[in-house]
């Protein structure tokens, strides 16, 4: 090929790369830190094969948010250290998109469930959308409001799996529910009754009537009686707020009985070791969102399983919702209305 004449200048250029960031669809979410909460824009998740995407209508606040935000030891097992860090686990909403292989749900279907508590968890329900495996959600009963389903999701699943699976609670057995006036505790009382157990609930004075209404056979007011005074009385001790320990509760258990707690800490490690030399077991519940369990609990909710809602906050008031979770005098679950609250 001949060289170009001297007067001809050869010009070359490179086409600019496409700005894929501008093409990425984003959604609104709320980041929570030690200092404040803030509205952020994050990519909309895409459902993979066997997954669904849910447009979140309602969410709820758990003790887990506080553990993560404060940097507590347990928090590292609950959510990834992402930036921005979008928290929230419970949800109820509608299917927005489905991945390949999902044939029994369709866009527009109302569903509920909760995200996994895991150090690898990067999503949060304080956002417009979340994606989950199809078997981690269930159809929401039509007669159960979105806010009630969201309020019940994590607490009910934790209670059911802690007592039935980890505690091996069976009909006719006795269970002690510590923290029966709390979000997990109230649902634990009602679920234990539906499992056919005899239920003793421990709570503060102001919660006695509500715990009785939830179905407890016996209620111990912790301000006027010592709930740890008995011996060999229960098949299961469920420490819902993780405030006791295996060492403190083992004497309450019958041989073959189980102490179950909800959060990992140093006392749990000690309890797990001690229980290896005893007929009384120590367990830590690692709750999972399972379709079959959600369907079971959904039926109970339709049938009147008690879920008390303390307060409702729009997503733009998430800071107030998080503060309410830790305030004295809270009665029941703190709900966050995600849809339309931005």
N- to C-terminal separation?
Answer: 65 Å
Report the radius of gyration as a whole number of Å: 24 Å
- SSE string, helix = H, strand = E? HEEEHEEEEHEHEHEEHEHEHEHE
Output the structural class.
alpha/beta
CATH topology annotation of the largest domain: Quinone Oxidoreductase, Chain A, domain 1
Q: Summarize the biggest pleated sheet.
A: 7 strands, mixed
Low-pLDDT windows of residues: 4-22
What would the average pLDDT be, to the nearest integer?
92
Number of strands: 15
Descriptors for this entry?
342 residues; alpha/beta; Quinone Oxidoreductase, Chain A, domain 1; Rossmann fold; 2 domains; seven-stranded mixed β-sheet; six-stranded parallel β-sheet; 9 helices; globular
Task: Describe this protein's structure.
- The protein has 342 residues and is of the alpha/beta class.
- It folds into 2 domains: 146 residues, Quinone Oxidoreductase, Chain A, domain 1 (Alpha-Beta Complex); 130 residues, Rossmann fold.
- Helix content is 25%, strand content 27%.
- It has 9 helices and 15 strands.
- The strands form 3 sheets. Strands 3, 4, 5, 6, 7, 14 and 15 form a 7-stranded mixed sheet that branches.
- Helix 3 crosses helix 4 and helix 3 packs across helix 8.
- The longest helix has 21 residues.
- It is globular and about 60 Å long.
- About 6% of the residues have low confidence.
């Amino acid at each position: 090929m001949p060289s170009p004449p001297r007067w001809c200048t050869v010009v070359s250029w490179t086409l600019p790369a496409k700005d894929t960031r501008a093409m990425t669809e984003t959604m609104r979410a709320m980041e929570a830190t030690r200092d404040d909460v803030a509205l952020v824009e994050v990519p909309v998740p895409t459902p993979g094969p066997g997954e669904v995407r849910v447009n979140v209508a309602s969410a709820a606040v758990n003790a887990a948010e506080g553990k993560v935000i404060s940097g507590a030891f347990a928090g590292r097992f609950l959510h990834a250290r992402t930036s921005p860090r979008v928290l929230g686990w419970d949800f109820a909403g509608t299917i927005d998109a489905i991945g390949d292989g999902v044939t029994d749900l369709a866009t527009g279907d109302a569903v509920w469930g909760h995200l996994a508590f895991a150090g690898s968890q990067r999503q949060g329900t304080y956002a417009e959308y979340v994606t989950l495996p199809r078997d981690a959600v269930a159809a929401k009963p039509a007669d159960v409001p979105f806010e009630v389903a969201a309020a019940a999701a994590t607490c009910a699943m934790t209670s059911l799996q802690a007592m039935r699976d980890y505690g091996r609670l069976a009909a006719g057995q006795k269970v002690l529910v510590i923290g029966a006036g709390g979000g997990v505790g109230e649902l634990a009382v009602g679920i234990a009754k539906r499992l056919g157990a005899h239920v003793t609930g421990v709570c503060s004075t102001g919660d006695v009537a509500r715990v009785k209404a939830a179905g407890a056979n016996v209620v111990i007011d912790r301000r006027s009686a010592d709930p740890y005074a008995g011996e060999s009385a229960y098949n299961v001790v469920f420490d819902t707020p993780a405030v006791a320990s295996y060492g403190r509760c083992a004497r309450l258990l019958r041989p073959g009985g189980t102490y179950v707690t909800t959060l990992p800490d140093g006392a749990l490690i000690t309890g797990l070791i001690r229980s290896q030399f005893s007929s009384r077991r120590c367990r830590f519940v690692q709750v999972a969102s399972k379709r079959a369990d959600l369907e079971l609990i959904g039926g109970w909710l339709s049938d009147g399983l008690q879920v008390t809602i303390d307060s409702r906050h729009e997503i733009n008031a998430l800071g107030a919702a998080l503060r309410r979770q830790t305030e004295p005098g809270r009665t029941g679950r703190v709900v966050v209305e995600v849809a339309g609250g931005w």
